[in-house]
Amino acid sequence: MRMQPRQEILDIWRATVRSCWANGEWHWGSRSGSNSISDAEQLLTLLLPAAKVPVLSLDDPDRADEEVIEALSPIGGAIEIPRRLVSVMIDYFRRYTDDAGAPIFGGGSYLTPLEGGPELTDEQRSLDIVDSFAVSVTLTLATIGFVKVYRGSTQRRDLLAHLDELEEMAGVRLTAAMVGLLRSFSTFVFTSTDEYGTRLCDMVNQDELPRRELVAALREQLRDTMASLRSVIIGSGRVTEDLDNSEMLFECGWSWGIISGAEEVPTTEPIGLQREGSAENAPYLYFTVIAMDAIEDLNSERTRLLGLLNEEQQRLSRALQLRWELTRTYWATVATFGNRRRWPIEDIPWRTTDGDRTDYYTLQTTSLAVKGLIAVGRGGDEELGRIASVLVELAQRARITRRASPGEPALFVHAPGKRVTLNDDTSKPIMTWNVNEFSTVLLQRATTVAGLLSNARRRSELLELADEVWDHLLLRRIPDGRHQGLWDHAGGAFPGLAPKPDAPSWYLTERVVQALVTSGQLLWERPFPRAGRLADYAQDLIDEAEYLFDRELMRGTFDGEAMQRSMRSIRASLGQAQLLVDERPGTAAALANTLLLLLNDVATGQQKASEGI
Q1: How many distinct structural domains can be found in the chain?
Q2: Domain of life here (predicted)?
Q3: Which end of the chain is more exposed for a tag (fewer CB within 10 A), N or C?
């Protein structure tokens, strides 16, 4: 991997501080203005790597890395950086809490009018949206974890009081976000013969089965999921239609906001009034993937080890986990249905049941497909290799790894991006949501799948794709000025596609950071995939070295302290080689080769000594 995640994150931190910190204050806002999502993304640009990458942690001044301190030096030194970040976090939570103490989750300036339609009203812009729930889960978990560690490194009463306030506000917002996700879950049921069922059948029927046979096979694979949907009893997503009817099909996932008519979720936490929903009862692929990633944060190892959830939040988390598993199973089944010819996900572009089609939806579906394959034990190199091939083709189609012609439609996925239409409870379009994260999602998916492959060559090929996507993203950094080094200047990669911006997009910058964190975890946490033949070769070398070592011990002719030290060193190195053979077989083989040469010298020396030479 040519990309250097740690160094790139530090460079982004320097650019973020230069852009946001001036005259001892943090300045909010981006090219889209300021809202609950953009400001959270701005803050996560710093907090996300600090929470997920140990060498970049900011919560303990005594353990802070020198390069980290240097990158954030305009904020202060090792002692001042976490203190001032606490003030910034408190400012965020206060900004997005109403007078009654209830958290605010409006989409604000990220919501846009329909093409040719009237400007949005303040009421429309204040509607709760799933993206805000999801980013709030990630932000609050990072904040609570930061507080728990930082509290142990200070004894100042005023600072401890601020930490208590921050943890309380973050906890309330986390609970409210979880409740919002529970009330935004959707199960959309339809017949196999209506327009939605026809589109779904056309998408999954890669083996050209008769319709009745196809529906029966699809329902059979989703039998457990349909049965489990009856367990959804709080929030939204409850199934009232008769799924036992052999003609019925369904989709499940997250709508764009709280479902119209969604029941309130009973909770003991002081989250304030639960607002009425206005979103249609139908899943949106973009918001489904966003919600799924946030729920994974709720169930991460870090969340468990630090005890970031209280008892009530753990109850809500279990309810969300059920929805996560149902959604994962559904989309993975649909994406990889059938096997004789090709999977539906390999038939690019993905087509949704409402008639929309785009390569971006294929890219999003790869995330759900990978989760499902791993869950059912099908995450081997053959299956994951098919997903990898889809990613390679998507990079070509989006002109990331192929030369682009000016003005061609394939470039519009980068700028202005995919416009997702948001419908009300009558399925009437009311506003749009713009998505231009294709490149960053592709980078993240490529490194994620690479980390799951056990074949070293296939893994290297996919990491090469990741490097090419990163080279593309480097061209899209803002080239100069106060915001230099942040994103997004799409015209840098595709001249003439978009003008140079006068402010950063925290939406895309935070997603670049997410992708770098994923790439970093691949290097820091996951072992190199075992290469079977190389590991066998290394083990054979170690076995021979151990045999020769044992034979020299049997001879017992190690007179002299120097020779005894040498044999103790060889014994220790043999143990080290044996420990490395699974995770680093090449290193183990090199070490074993060195030991074989040393043992040969020992044997030769002993032979000459016995012959009196």
Answers
A1: 2
A2: Bacteria
A3: C
